[in-house]
């Protein structure tokens, strides 16, 4: 009986400590959410950082929306993607709508020999913002060994999702450091925060982007550089193949408008209020439960995709 009492006291303090810790974490998250999305603040970007913004994969989806938001802030925009026709069309739209200068570079980030051309095209530009947005995912969630053309997929996905982030940062960061200012926005994914089976290679590349962003921010924040890791859940774009936006699946325009409010305030963000809530819940789940749920989710999308493919 006597020896049970100190144990009960110990458990009491462990319990109280855990409750206090969770209460503090939740209050801090709510305070930050209110500060970012409730109070709002001016754009954390603009020509004062350097007149040009560079957006990789800037002709569709999330990248196109970043290019438009940055142009709205008065920045000149460089768009980089594969198709010159799409580049011409989107850059014309941006020039006409926002009255800013634009530049285009046609390059395929699946290749490794494009960076000399990009370097030459960017020479002499004062780049204030780099958005490392380009990324590719699976056609549909699939088991590792069943991925069509696996060897080629591995190489392509690593080049587009990882190599592009490192190489573009290498090209742009020296100028930012020289001018002691600059913002780098790296588009990771919620599947880079927590593993997402059946999107295994993709999820792992996005984990790389998240770690890379956090480390570079820590290395260069004292030089006036702000690096952000953006971790969206599903957004309605060609990549997700979700056609109809919903409460949890915003359009890319709504997503980016919201994510831009976090620039300068948060080094890691899910970018959208409901996505942040989802991120908080997911991070509190035991990892075995999370993995079971995400595997279940992946399997159900896979089944729907394969059923649809069989019909067509
Ligand atoms: C609060 C959270 C609490 C607990 C969570 C617990 C556990 C965690 C579980 C899941 C984790 C959650 C999110 C994942 C994390 C990160 C995701 C990041 C994604 C990312 O980074 C980008 C990608 O890589 S996307 C993956 C690659 N692309 C694909 O796999 C495309 C596959 N999809 C398709 O081919 C088609 O969409 C389809 C065949 C599945 C359906 O097409 P269709 O018949 O044409 O139907 P609709 O497009 O009209 O859609 C109908 C409804 O289905 C929903 N839906 C469609 N696609 C998806 C999808 N990929 N993921 C989720 N939901 C999808 C769509 O919203 C419609 O819903 P309703 O309106 O409700 O009917
Ligand atoms: N949509 C979603 O649900 C989520 C997306 N993300 C991330 O957001 C980023 C953008 O995704 P999203 O907007 O959905 O993608 P989209 O497929 O809608 O757009 C992709 C853009 O990248 C360009 N692009 C694709 N492949 C290459 C390549 N090899 N070389 C050069 N450019 C290329 C495309 O232009 P073109 O085809 O002309 O080359 C297009 O401009 C990605 O990094 C993705 O991982 C993260 C979480 C969720």
Automatic annotation (TrEMBL):
SUPFAM superfamilies, per database record: NAD(P)-binding Rossmann-fold domains (SSF51735)
Primary subcellular site in the record, as a coarse category: endoplasmic reticulum
Membrane-spanning ranges: 6-24
Reactions mediated catalytically: 17beta-estradiol + NAD(+) = estrone + NADH + H(+); 3-oxo-(8Z,11Z,14Z)-eicosatrienoyl-CoA + NADPH + H(+) = (3R)-hydroxy-(8Z,11Z,14Z)-eicosatrienoyl-CoA + NADP(+); (7Z,10Z,13Z,16Z)-3-oxodocosatetraenoyl-CoA + NADPH + H(+) = (3R)-hydroxy-(7Z,10Z,13Z,16Z)-docosatetraenoyl-CoA + NADP(+); 3-oxo-(7Z,10Z,13Z,16Z,19Z)-docosapentaenoyl-CoA + NADPH + H(+) = (3R)-hydroxy-(7Z,10Z,13Z,16Z,19Z)-docosapentaenoyl-CoA + NADP(+)
Presence of keyword Membrane: yes
Pathway the protein acts in: Lipid metabolism; fatty acid biosynthesis; Steroid biosynthesis; estrogen biosynthesis
Subcellular location: Endoplasmic reticulum membrane
A GO BP entry: steroid biosynthetic process
EC number in record: 1.1.1.330, 1.1.1.62
Keywords: Endoplasmic reticulum, Lipid biosynthesis, Lipid metabolism, Membrane, NADP, Oxidoreductase, Steroid biosynthesis, Transmembrane, Transmembrane helix
GO molecular function, one term: very-long-chain 3-oxoacyl-CoA reductase activity
Family as reported in the entry's similarity comment: Belongs to the short-chain dehydrogenases/reductases (SDR) family. 17-beta-HSD 3 subfamily.
Record function comment: Catalyzes the second of the four reactions of the long-chain fatty acids elongation cycle. This endoplasmic reticulum-bound enzymatic process, allows the addition of two carbons to the chain of long- and very long-chain fatty acids/VLCFAs per cycle. This enzyme has a 3-ketoacyl-CoA reductase activity, reducing 3-ketoacyl-CoA to 3-hydroxyacyl-CoA, within each cycle of fatty acid elongation. Thereby, it may participate in the production of VLCFAs of different chain lengths that are involved in multiple biological processes as precursors of membrane lipids and lipid mediators.
Protein name: Very-long-chain 3-oxoacyl-CoA reductase
